[in-house]
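Hey L., structure's done. Input below.
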Amino acid sequence: MPDSETLSTVARWLDDNASSLGLVELRRNTISDPAKLHARYETGDFLVSVTAWAQGACLDIDILEKASGRIEVIIQGPCGEQSDILERLNVFAKRLTALRRV
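Output:
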């Protein structure tokens, strides 16, 4: 895995929270040029894509609703600090939880 605080932070958060969010990991890979982590998850009703880039501490998260094919971009773009990344991951968790209750 490329050495990056951003990628490590996202990977750790996903490891710690995926199960409690009902996410089943389909695939996770990292590449080094550009340094990036991409993970795909599934729940009963949704597919989730999480991509983090080391450069610019960028994080993109989108959710695809299987039944309708509707995609919702939850998080997109640079975060700045590691605390911003964690905050955005927590926003994603809250949004996924809300979607699953509908």
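The chain has one domain: 5-101. The radius of gyration is 13 Å.

-- N.
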